[in-house]
Amino acid sequence: MSSIQKQNQFKRMNTVSMRNIKTVKERMQQRKKIESEAEDAFNNGIANLCEFETDIGNMMKRMASPVIQKFEELKLIRKKSSKDTKMLKIEIILDGKIVKANKPNLRGA
Predict the structure, then answer these.
(1) Which terminus has fewer CB within 10 Å in the chain: N or C?
(2) pLDDT value at 41 more than 90
(3) Global confidence as pTM
């Protein structure tokens, strides 16, 4: 090979390697851009999920609030009716004892 051919071959190799370097840089820049866009999309998605989670939590509280109130009212009613039932039983027992005490004892007569 002559020196001119060697120089031309070196220039071609140098040009190819320069193109490869340029394409590597372009690929890295493109990759960084894609990673940045993906990170932004991910962060936006997470933010949206957090908002949805908060909204769902608030809706559940609003929906559950009347249900919980009614449940508490029912518990109070049950307690009151239980106390009323106990009081009625006590009254019946006491009335029965009073009636027995007021009845004359016919056996001993």
Answers:
(1) C
(2) yes
(3) 0.39
Rounded CA-CA distance 102/109 in Å is: 15
Distance CA 72, CA 47 (A): 36
Measured distance CA(85)–CA(92) in Å, rounded: 10
Sign, CA dihedral 99-100-102-104, equals positive
What pLDDT is recorded for position 15?
Answer: 66
How far is the C-alpha of 93 from the C-alpha of 84, rounded, in Å? 14
Closest CA to 74 of 62, 82, 85: 82
How far is residue 63's CA from residue 9's CA, in Å, rounded to a whole number? 79
Residue where the block lists tokens 């559940």 = 60
Here the tokens at position 1 are: 């090979």
Tokens of 33: 């851009």
**pLDDT band per the 50, 70, 90 thresholds, residue 21:** low
